[in-house]
Amino acid sequence: QVQLVESGGGVVQPGRSLRLSCAASGFTFSDYAMHWVRQAPGKGLEWVAVIWFDGSKRYYEDSVKGRFTISRDNSKDTLYLHMNSLRAEDTAVYYCAGDPGGYHLDSWGQGTLVTVSS
Amino acid sequence: QSVLTQPPSASGTPGQRVTISCSGSNSNIGSNYVYWYQQLPGTAPKLLIYRNNQRPSGVPDRFSGSKSGTSASLAISGLRSEDEAEYYCAAWDDSLSGGVFGGGTKLTVL
């Protein structure tokens, strides 16, 4: 069955960096675009970034442009989110989600919590 | 403030029909598919409706979606207690070159 497992979350000080990973199984990872979506405590869903199935295109939400980098390793069926210059407002549960095409997020991980605090 | 606008709350009694609206613009709903997600408390979101009105396998036909112009709606008929959840609409936005979500609607089954 389709499974997405995020890891790498934790508590980090403002201005520091963190890398999230998302291990995929149960489907052909290289056929899917992959997204990161976050949810601040008690708030709604916020789209963060997407990477095309072959890594050829990447798009970001405005507040993370220049600070976050989405990448993937299709040989390892793994998605990444490199987060630099973290701010308190980046505190959220970060979900990875698989997309067979058209912003169609048909599979989601369980999420990993990132807390930015001094 | 979310790019897509949803009512913050909705409610109904068991067996009733409830609709949740989602309003956007030409750059998102007006030119792209709409998706709906259900998020039960403490869990990850789940795809409920894709491409405006299609149901993934396993989603009951009590759930239906529609789209007209720059607005969309989710209808839930035969309301059940297990439908109590947060519901989000979503679409790609061509102007932003990014995904957008509605602010979410908390559905309460009275």
Structure commentary:
- The complex is a heterodimer of chains A (118) and B (110).
- By secondary structure, chain A is mainly β.
- The mean pLDDT of chain A is 97.
- Chain A has strands at residues 3-7, 10-12, 18-25, 33-39, 45-51, 58-60, 68-73, 78-83, 92-99, 107-108, 112-116.
- In chain A, a hairpin with a 4-residue loop joins strand 7 (68-73) and strand 8 (78-83).
- Chain B is mainly beta.
- The termini of chain B are far apart.
- Chains A and B meet through strand 5 of A and strand 3, strand 7 and strand 8 of B.
Core attributes:
heterodimer, A: 118 residues, mainly beta, 7-stranded mixed sheet, 4-stranded antiparallel sheet, 51% strand, B: 110 residues, 6-stranded mixed sheet, 3-stranded antiparallel sheet, 0% helix
Count all strands of chain B and give the number.
9
Strand content of chain A: over 45%
Helix content of chain B: under 10%
Shape of chain B: globular
Largest interface: A-B, 21 and 27 residues
Q: Based on CA inertia axes, which overall geometry of chain A fits?
A: globular
- What is the overall number of helices of chain A? 0
Q: Biggest β-sheet of chain B: count, sense, barrel? A: 6 strands, mixed
Broad structural category of chain A? mainly beta
Could you estimate the helical fraction of the residues of chain A in percent?
under 10%
What's the short version?
Chain A is an all-beta fold. Chain A has strands at residues 3-7, 10-12, 18-25, 33-39, 45-51, 58-60, 68-73, 78-83, 92-99, 107-108, 112-116.
Helices and strands in order:
The complex is a heterodimer of chains A (118) and B (110).
Chain A: E1 3-7, E2 10-12, E3 18-25, E4 33-39, E5 45-51, E6 58-60, E7 68-73, E8 78-83, E9 92-99, E10 107-108, E11 112-116
Parallel strand pairs in A: 2-11
Antiparallel strand pairs in A: 1-3, 3-8, 4-5, 4-9, 5-6, 7-8, 9-10, 9-11
Chain B: E1 9-12, E2 18-23, E3 34-39, E4 46-49, E5 63-68, E6 71-76, E7 85-93, E8 98-101, E9 105-109
